[in-house]
Write a sequence for this structure.
């Protein structure tokens, strides 16, 4: 709850703003998945198995969340070496996730499920594609952290901790979003 | 700080004594954004400048959007008239026949109708209204230095600007702008070959609106964060002016509904460019069957109206907030039923999310499911009526100043009642079978959300013009503007109810060649003449606006209206950071008018000995 006598606090405001942003992204995927739910029983729906590569992607993005957490903890403990390792690893795993997603789409195309074959396939491409765009946003933010880690001196100010914390929260968010999408697709 | 703030007056001393010192002006990060022309006027991060940018862009679009409506009104009122004099402006969209008579191209007529809707709904009444006043008033009225993220706030304007540029460019395409209606229903919007505006015109339309959504989201994130986190000491939620409440709820609505529209547009873009069939099925073009099957145009309608219905409240809620505040200030009375006002805003906002299918009664939605939407649609009448009752009760027995802002507020209440009543007709799925897609619908939504929201906006502009530009707008011109607009708007939209009940459909190019509708020729002429007169009254407003910016009567005191809210405790020329030294702290709610025989008591004035908080 917000204290009614709260003094102006920019730190808290930024974190709060990020949460609002994540809420709006959630609404977007809520719309897409409910469109999926409404469309499916209407028939003309081509059933197929998810490519195995999607599960590889899932492992990669979960691993990247763990390294992100490690990087943040290291920064908090002022451990520069571990922070640098952690943030670079997260960045690499993020890129790897995108590559894995592209491989998944290639596998789909190879099995004959192109984007315009059936609405069921189109939805799969749309959901994973729009998710990938949000991952790219996260990777861009991590890239800024990486650049900071190597180009600037290592000082753990509260502002820097906050910035990395914001990146970390967004990164976990796209991770959870992907797990949600995958579970949704499996259970449907 | 700069030297342009006036010597301390009594009220400023209170800020000195009781204010909260956030050391804003000690480290000079506060002013680094305003060092040269570019950072002061163009890429400004100051919320007051961004507000003015939104307002100017909004006025620009309003003039274009209104001028478009005049052109298609000319077509409807005088289908046989010679429009060749428009050739210099419209170019090839006016074709001159052998007899030398210029005619408006039917395709362009549809483009005009589409663009009129898109421009007024999104660019004027969303960006121009909530963008302007949320930016101007939120930090000033809650006692904040600026928005939570001034940078994102600047981006919010520039995304809007970019979106405007794209839309403006689409007006000049050789195939014309998008022409399938502002709701962009597929298949007209999803198939580039469906009509001439569906190609490049629609592509630019979609790109423009995706940019627009980004702008709304960046703005909305900032508004909510600022209101919830950056209120000054003592400014509890229940002490906020109703304007701030309205902007808060508007921003929440936008954040929850615009992403849904964006996802609808993404699927649309896939359909247009990647060959998917989210919205397409069983389509024949020139007798040829298309191989796009399995999609559903109704799916788009659901997604669109899930935004589209909250959108009408995104438009009207800021107007309601402005009206509540201005009405109370100029009636010199506390707003009647402050808490009821807040709860009714919240109720309207909640209900707005579960009534979207009332736009789709005739689209083939299950009639049993329609009942659900009918019931919740009609329930919206309850909080709306609460608000109207409270506005009228605020006026009752007030010491009313009939100045221009006040007139527009009263006009707003009048329009909201007239337009709201016809909403009850249309909300019934059975009556909607007759009224659907007729001029009755056109009349309804133009009065209740078009004219009413414009009135709220005008009230806001006239009222806060001194805060924006340090000068007053001309009252005489303002009053002429009000009366011509008030009478003109009823003259335009009143007869449309009658046309609609007679079954005259909207979006037709001409009516004189239908036996059923050709009796309405004179009425259509009357509407057109009224529209032209009303349009010129709006130009009068624009002239007044820009003239007053430079030549208007100067503002000589900080608080010219004797208003309670915090924006009037800032210096006349408000610099970056809003208050030259400390931030005022808040001691009471925003509506202590006429309390203890004092005309008004500003929010930062502490309780007198023995005084109790007003119960509200």
């Amino acid at each position: 709850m917000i204290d009614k006598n709260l003094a102006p606090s920019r730190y808290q405001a930024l974190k709060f703003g990020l949460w609002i942003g994540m809420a709006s992204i959630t609404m977007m995927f809520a719309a897409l998945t409910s469109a999926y739910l409404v469309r499916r029983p209407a028939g003309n729906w081509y059933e197929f198995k998810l490519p195995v590569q999607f599960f590889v992607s899932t492992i990669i993005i979960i691993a990247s969340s763990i390294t992100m957490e490690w990087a943040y903890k290291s920064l908090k403990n002022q451990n520069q070496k571990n922070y640098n390792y952690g943030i670079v690893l997260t960045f690499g795993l993020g890129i790897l996730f995108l590559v894995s997603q592209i491989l998944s789409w290639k596998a789909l195309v190879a099995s004959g499920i192109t984007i315009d074959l059936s609405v069921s396939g189109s939805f799969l491409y749309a959901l994973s594609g729009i998710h990938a765009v949000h991952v790219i946003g996260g990777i861009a933010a991590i890239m800024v952290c990486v650049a900071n880690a190597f180009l600037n001196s290592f000082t753990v100010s509260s502002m820097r901790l906050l910035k990395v914390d914001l990146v970390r929260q967004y990164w976990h968010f796209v991770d959870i979003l992907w797990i949600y999408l995958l579970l949704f697709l499996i259970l449907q | 700080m700069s030297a342009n703030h006036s010597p301390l007056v009594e009220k400023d001393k209170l800020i000195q004594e009781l204010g909260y010192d956030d050391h804003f002006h000690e480290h000079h990060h506060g002013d680094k954004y305003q060092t040269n022309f570019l950072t002061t006027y163009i890429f400004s991060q100051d919320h007051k400048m961004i507000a003015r940018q939104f307002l100017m862009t909004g006025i620009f679009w309003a003039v274009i959007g209104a001028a478009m409506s005049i052109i298609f009104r000319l077509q409807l009122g005088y289908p046989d008239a010679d429009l060749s004099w428009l050739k210099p402006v419209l170019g090839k969209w006016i074709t001159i026949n052998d007899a030398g008579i210029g005619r408006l191209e039917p395709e362009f007529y549809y483009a005009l109708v589409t663009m009129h809707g898109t421009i007024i709904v999104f660019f004027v009444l969303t960006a121009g209204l909530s963008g302007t006043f949320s930016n101007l008033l939120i930090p000033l009225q809650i006692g904040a230095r600026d928005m939570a993220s001034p940078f994102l706030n600047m981006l919010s304007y520039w995304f809007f600007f970019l979106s405007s540029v794209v839309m403006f460019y689409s007006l000049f395409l050789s195939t014309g702008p998008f022409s399938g209606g502002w709701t962009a229903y597929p298949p007209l919007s999803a198939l580039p070959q469906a009509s001439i505006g569906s190609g490049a015109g629609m592509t630019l339309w979609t790109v423009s609106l995706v940019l627009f959504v980004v702008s709304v989201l960046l703005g909305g994130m900032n508004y909510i964060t600022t209101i919830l986190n950056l209120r000054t000491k003592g400014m509890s939620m229940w002490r906020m002016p109703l304007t701030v409440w309205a902007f808060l709820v508007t921003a929440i609505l936008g954040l929850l509904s615009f992403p849904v529209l964006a996802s609808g547009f993404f699927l649309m873009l896939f359909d247009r460019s990647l060959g998917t069939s989210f919205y397409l099925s069983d389509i024949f073009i020139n007798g040829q069957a298309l191989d796009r099957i399995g999609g559903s145009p109704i799916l788009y309608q659901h997604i669109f109206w899930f935004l589209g219905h909250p959108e009408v409240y995104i438009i009207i809620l800021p107007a309601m907030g402005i009206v509540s505040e201005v009405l109370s200030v100029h009636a010199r009375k506390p707003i009647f039923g402050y808490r009821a006002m807040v709860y009714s805003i919240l109720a309207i906002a909640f209900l707005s999310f579960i009534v979207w299918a009332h736009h789709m009664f005739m689209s083939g939605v299950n009639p049993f499911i329609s009942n659900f939407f009918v019931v919740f649609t009609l329930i919206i009448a309850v909080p709306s009526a609460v608000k109207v009752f409270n506005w009228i009760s605020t006026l009752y027995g007030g010491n009313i100043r009939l100045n221009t802002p006040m007139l527009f507020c009263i006009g707003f209440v009048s329009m909201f009642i007239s337009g709201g009543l016809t909403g009850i007709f249309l909300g019934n799925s059975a009556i909607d079978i007759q009224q659907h897609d007729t001029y009755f619908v056109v009349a309804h939504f133009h009065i209740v959300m078009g004219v009413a929201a414009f009135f709220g906006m005008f009230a806001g502009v006239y009222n806060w013009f001194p805060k924006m530009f340090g000068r007053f707008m001309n009252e005489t011109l303002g009053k002429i503007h009000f009366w011509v607009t008030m009478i003109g708007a009823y003259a335009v939209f009143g007869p449309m109810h009658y046309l609609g009940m007679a079954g005259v459909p909207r979006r037709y190019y001409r009516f004189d060649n239908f036996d059923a509708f050709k009796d309405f020729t004179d009425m259509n002429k009357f509407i057109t003449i009224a529209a032209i007169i009303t349009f010129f009254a709006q130009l009068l407003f624009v002239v007044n606006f820009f003239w007053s910016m430079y030549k208007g009567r100067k503002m000589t005191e900080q608080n010219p209206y004797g208003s309670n809210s915090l924006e009037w405790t800032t210096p006349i020329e408000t610099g970056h950071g809003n208050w030259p030294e400390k931030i005022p702290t808040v001691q009471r709610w925003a509506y202590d008018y006429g309390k203890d025989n004092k005309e008004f008591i500003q929010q930062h004035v502490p309780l007198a000995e023995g005084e109790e908080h007003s119960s509200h």
Remarks:
- The interface with chain B takes residues 2, 4-10, 12-14, 16-17, 20-21, 23-25, 27-32, 35, 38-39, 42, 44-45, 115-116, 118-119, 122-123, 125-126, 130 of chain A (CB under 8 Å).
- The longest helix of chain A spans residues 119-151.
